[in-house]
Amino acid sequence: MLELLLCSLLTVFPDYLFRRYAQGRRLGREITLYTVWYELRWGITACLLLTVSLITVIFYYHPSTKNVTAIFRTVSILPEATGRVAEVFVGLNSKVEAGDALFRLDSSAQEAAHETAQRAIDEATAAMAVARTELAAADGLIQQAQGAYQQALDELATRQELLRRKADVSVREVERLQITADGRKGALDAAIANKSTIEIKLSSLLPAQKASAEAALAQAQVEIDKTLVRAGVAGTVQQFVLRPGDIVNTMIRPAGILVPEEAGRVNLVAGFGQIEAQVMKKGMIAEATCIGKPFTIIPMVVTDVQDVIAAGQLRASDQLIDVQQIAKGGSLTVFLQPLYAGALDGIPPGSSCIANAYTNNHDALAAKDIGTGKWLFLHMVDTVAVVHAMIIRMQALMLPVQTLVLGGH
In this structure, which of 172, 262, 268, 323 has its CB flanked by the most CB atoms within 10 Å? Predict the structure, then answer.
């Protein structure tokens, strides 16, 4: 309607002035309801053509959309394991900080495993003490075996010397002493080997067993810590109706939802028509008005333009997909960020909004090699942006009326 009124001032109104003052035709006489088309046909035709052209230029180079939302992400409150709730520390709509405890699951099994691992550590420590005692005993056995072996060697050497001097010593007795010395040598080697075994047990086996028990203790402590569920980020707890005794399942039944503090308060996500894909660029200036904050125009800037249309996505399955089933019109996803900090304050996350984006040809107009026709056209494109700016301000004024009065609320 605004475009039609503007165009009529440039076409119909001059045509009427010409008919009135140049041809002497007056309203109510020569120009009536039945003759208005014939008398003002040139102005009316030009008005329609100019209006259609103006609307096309405005909506193409300065696109508008009502598909704008302050999208926010929620965090599911889930433990890392299924269990029964033992304690609940917060209530519905509670404000929490990162790291605050939300609820605790029953940890009887985990505490039993923790106690078992602690006992295994104590057992390994005691075994190391026993091994040290056995090591001292092994040293005594080695000294005893060395003395017996040395005594057998001395007796053998004495008998061999007497046998060499042809004394009253039999060969059989010398052989018996040799066998005795060999046996005591074996006992000495066994004592030394036993000491080595105890040393290896004390230096390698028992410390490894203790380290394994300590690792099991640490794992048991981790499992106990998992039973205490904490908030990962600061925010508000929603749909949190847990009570002691409830079963929480990581796959089926979450405990609730945590809405982060900054959720939906950083940017807006808009869905523009696909025809604006060549116009929408990163860095474009935009404006938005939200139903959650009426009578307010929020200056925005385009921070990113999604380079794919979500409606055409395909996921592999066991059935062939007909293109007709997925070739539905989708929108071009655009991310808008406020130009000034705090511009989105007071707008509830998830609010519906209206947004305009404006094409800026300042750099193209500043180029030295630009032609006259292109210069005039780009100037016209930038100028008609004021029409769209007026429209979004009218929408900001009418939005509460449409919602509360005309919408039946």
Answer: 268
The length of the chain, given as a count of residues = 409
Residue among 332, 341, 362 at smallest CA distance from 298: 341
Alpha-carbon distance of 339 to 267, in angstroms, equals: 10
Q: Mean pLDDT in runs of 10 for the chain (409 residues)?
A: 71 73 72 70 80 83 89 84 85 85 86 88 85 79 77 72 65 72 78 79 82 88 86 85 81 80 83 88 90 88 88 77 73 90 84 89 82 85 84 86 71
* Torsion over CA: 9, 10, 12, 17 (sign): positive
Query: pLDDT at position 163, please?
Result: 63
Q: Rounded CA gap, 208 and 186, in Å? A: 31
Both tokens assigned to 249:
């399942």
Q: How far is CA 104 from CA 65, 137, 217, 227, 260, in A?
A: 46, 52, 20, 5, 21
Question: What is the spatial distance between Cα 340 and Cα 301, in angstroms, rounded to a whole number?
Answer: 10
What the block records as the tokens of 9 is 């001032």
Q: How many CB atoms lie within 10 A of CB 22?
A: 8
Alpha helices in 201-278 (DSSP H): 206-226
Region of residue 288 (phi > 0: left; psi between -120 and 50: alpha; otherwise: beta)? beta
> From the CB of residue 323, how many other CB atoms can be counted at a distance below 10 Å?
8
How far is Cα 327 from Cα 212, in angstroms, rounded to an integer?
A: 59
290 three-state secondary structure: strand
Instruction: Say which DSSP state 265 is in.
Output: S
Identify the pLDDT of residue 300. 92
Question: Amino acid identity of 102?
Answer: L
Contacts of 265 (CB under 8 A, 6+ apart): 70, 72, 344, 345, 347, 349
